[in-house]
Amino acid sequence: MGFDVLTNSLIDVLSSGSAIFVLVGVALGLCFGVIPGLGGTTALALLIPVTFSMESLDAMYLAGGVMGATSFGGSITAILINTPGTAPNAATTFDGYPLAQQGKAGLAIGASATASAMGGLIGLFTLLVFIPIAKEVVLAFGPAEFFLLTILGLTAIAVSARGKLLRGLIAGGIGLMFAFVGLDGITGQERFTVASNYLWDGIPLVPTLTGMFAISQMIELALKGGVVAAEGDGLSRRISGIGSGIAAVFRHWTVLLRGSAIGTIIGAIPGLGGTVAAFIAYTATVQASRKPESFGKGNIVGVIAPESANNAKDGGSLIPTVAFGIPGSAETAVFLGILVLHGIDPGPSILLNNEREIYGLIVALTLSAVGASIIGLLTARWLVLITFVNVHILVPVVVAVSLTGVYVLEGKPYDVILCLIMGILGYIMIRFDYPRLTLVIALVLGETCERSYHLTMMISDNHMLQFILGRPAATILLVATVVTLCLPFARKVLERQRSRA
Amino acid sequence: MTNAWMRTGLLAAVLAAVAVPAAAEWPNDKPITIVIPYSPGGGFDTIVRAFAPTLEKVLGAEVVPENIPGAGGTKGAATVHRSEPDGYTIGIYNIPGFTVNQVLGKDMGFDLDEVTWIANLATSRYAVAVKADSEINSLDDLCSLGREAKMSDTGSSSTASVTTRISFALIDCPLTDVAGYEGSNDAMIAVMRGEVDGTVKPISSLKKYVESGDLKIIATYTQKDVLDGVSSTGSLGHADLAKFDLRRIIGGPPGMSPEIVEKLSQAFIEAANSPEVQEWAAGAGIELEPVGADEASAMMSDLSDFYSQYKDTLAAN
Questions:
Q1: Chain B contact present for A84, CB below 8 A
Q2: b/e for B54-63, b at 16 or more Cβ within 10 A?
């Protein structure tokens, strides 16, 4: 039944002039994605007033176009200048940037574009399959499952920090401490707000991410000088590899599927989002690999996993939306806000009452995921030239644009100051070889982790373990966490036995 | 000498030319800004944006909604408080959230008692809901489970949590307030998952889930029965419970001139009664209840007295 409506919606878009809204959305999404500090949420938030005078369906097309395109846009800067354009692209820098440094940026962008499009399509397909049982899916995930998912995410930090376990844990610990700043989610008490009401809502994510990834990287580049692509003279290499990048995605289809599955699941959990999805997809891929030591040095698989996950999460984040009219991500929250502005009250009957809008959004997301990647592939050969721009030109531009982006989001000067502080902290972390993403992941997970822990304790009358074992989804997550923790040790033991034999 | 006099005279003339028409010509000098202390897309944002076009027509002036989020809504309110009381900057307030903060002596960056109240736009009443297939059918059932009733809520400083804790204390109902859900939707879904027994939420929010067959309402916090087959707390003999509600109220900086307040107040009421806003409210499930400046001010001091009685319950987080 869902597919009939879907085909009708698709015909609607293509036959009316409304396709232009999708196209405009894609163009905007790509731009906001490419520019560090600006992301999908910012783009949508800025668009809200514009959509007020539009038909609700056209507003959905525009929103869908933006949502589907930002995460691919962000991978471009992640690969080319080691600066994720949006937070969910942070994990893409691990292997994307080394590839660009080796002059293989074309390969990385080709893979990223294809993985983004395929991941997006898989996520949306999963959504369509799950629509009839969306309510049951959402009801299966309560505070206990959220808590275990955050623990699983925090465990992945330890796993990701190969050979740098202590540093990874220190960075994660700092991230958790940052997460505790602000009003306590349970009691409303102020914590570490240093008597400033700026910090009441906690350390804001966008300025932190922009500082950690964009500003710090610009400091690093500025001090180093030269150009990004150290190897190869550019002119001979810049075009090559796009085709093999596309092919690589299909050759590593298991990585694609795993990344998309992780993205869809994490996307459905409110409060976690694409950054966590991409990070877990990356670490899961490293863990499953037979050559884990090849990651971080330009393994193409390390680009495919996070990029498929951060696009698949859009489909996943719509599962709570079709089930109960509640957001699964920051972007869907803004999207529901647009519906409210059009006099539509999102609720559990959203799919019955607003079928056109929901399917319109899904169609727009589909077109956008594919469209953005095609545009990306067509322009890749010119985009790659960025890596040959002298950093003395590159750095001021990126710094100015990303600080403006941080300011535009909420209009708070303190956000800019925080972003700069985080930039310096990030640079120190680069210099002393501490993983920055670990800190950020802990910051994102900290609040949900704490909140759902308290809730689980309260609803289980302080018998947490019994409560968890009584819920199938929670039990699976508990097992997955234990396996994640034990796997590296088990491997070591196996290797030792093998070398003895 | 003459020169100096002339200059002073000229200055005075210029000042007069600038100052006098400014006061006389309100609201035509510049756009009227309505500060929304939360991000776009929420309940406070939506109602202001729904009113804005009709307000423009009624006032014949430009109306600009501006979002100043942060610090639990107090940043935007404090910004309004510091503005010139010239009728060009007003805002929407989270009541009784701010009233509770004030009673507890939390520093909000402004004094709620000094706000010039202009109009109340809408009032939402609360109700108690449980899972649709639950065996609990009344407040009595909920309070005689043989254990504490678990009620889901957002953070314990939220209005709904405050309402739950005070009202359950008033009717002597044993309670575990499971506070900490991220939003009111999450709190309602927690009831459907069955991890809590029920929740206290505005009727308009609950209705959606009642219509979809997921929840049922067992009592409304109103004086008289408002829903078919559901007892009101008034009819159950708990008169005070009807005082808990949620307001969308407009106010401005201290010291606004009464004429401007009156004009604004009339404009808001006219807008609330316009077909456009009425139609929007019906679609969005908003209970419009427009009242003017005097009633709004009286309402605010009533609320302040009401919550002050329960200072101890509020402080015990």
A1: no
A2: bbbebbebeb
In chain A, residues with a C-beta closer than 8 Å to the C-beta of B284 are: 340, 343-345
B173-212 burial string, b = 16+ CB within 10 Å, else e?
Answer: bebbbbbbbbebbbbbbbbbbebbbbbbbbbbbbbbbbeb
pLDDT exceeds cutoff 50 at A77? yes
pLDDT in tens, B253-296: 998 988 899 999 999 999 999 998 888 887 777 788 888 888 88
Q: Closest Cα partner for A267 from A56, A120, A90, A135?
A: A120
Q: Where are the beta strands (DSSP E) in chain B?
A: 32-36, 63-67, 89-95, 116-131, 149-154, 175-181, 198-202, 215-220, 231-232, 245-252, 288-291
Which of A341, A444, A460 best tests the B interface by mutation, with the highest count of B CBs <10 A?
A341
B-chain residue closest to A204, CA distance: B70
CA A157/CA A488 separation, integer angstroms: 13
**Would you call B156 and A187 a contact, using CB atoms and an 8 Å cutoff?**
yes
Closest CA to A2 of A127, A120, A136: A127
CA B27 to chain centre: 25
> Residue A162: its pLDDT value, please?
66
Task: Say if the Cβ atoms of B209 and A343 lie within 8 Å.
Answer: no
**Number of Cβ pairs closer than 8 Å across A and B?**
119
What distance in Å separates the CA atoms of residue A59 and residue B204, rounded to the nearest whole number?
A: 25
A25-63 exposure pattern, b = at least 16 Cβ within 10 A, e = fewer: bbbbbbbbbbbbbbbbbbbbbbbbeebbebebbbbbbbb
Q: Does any CB of chain A come closer than 8 Å to the CB of residue B70? A: yes
What is the per-residue pLDDT across A323-342, written as a single tens digit (0 to 9) for each? 888 888 878 887 887 887 77
* Residue among B74, B156, B283 minimizing CB distance to A197: B74
**B179 phi, psi to nearest 5 deg:** -95, 145
